[in-house]
Amino acid sequence: MTWLKQLFSRRRLYGDLSDEIREHLEEKIEELVAGGMSRKEATHAARREFGNVSLVEEDSQTAWTWPSIENFLMDVRYGLRMLRKSPGFTAVVVLTLALGIGANTAIFSVVNAVLFPPAADPRPSACRRTARSIS
Fold this sequence. Notes:
The protein is mostly helical. The chain has helices at 2-8, 10-34, 39-50, 53-64, 67-85, 87-115, 124-134.
């Protein structure tokens, strides 16, 4: 269940990751300042050594993600936002889906009954005897 909780609390996790990376960068800067560098030189040296902070965050987030699931959830959220913005279009979409699903079910029921009739058992009494002997 924790993976599901993590999946839906990504924004908080990414914020925590960002804070953690920035803390590491600050620690490195403090270490260099304690070593005798000026604050400005230490900041530049730490950034050179650490690399692009945004890129490190993206790489770390990529390591934590399930891209296909997260992309799907983002698409669903976006779609729901767009449907909420235009209720008339939403009503047409829901009605179209309902008619399509209903028509598909009706056609499948007819085709299933016509093309695949129930198989007749040549020995119906054997089925009754088997059922009685089991119970």
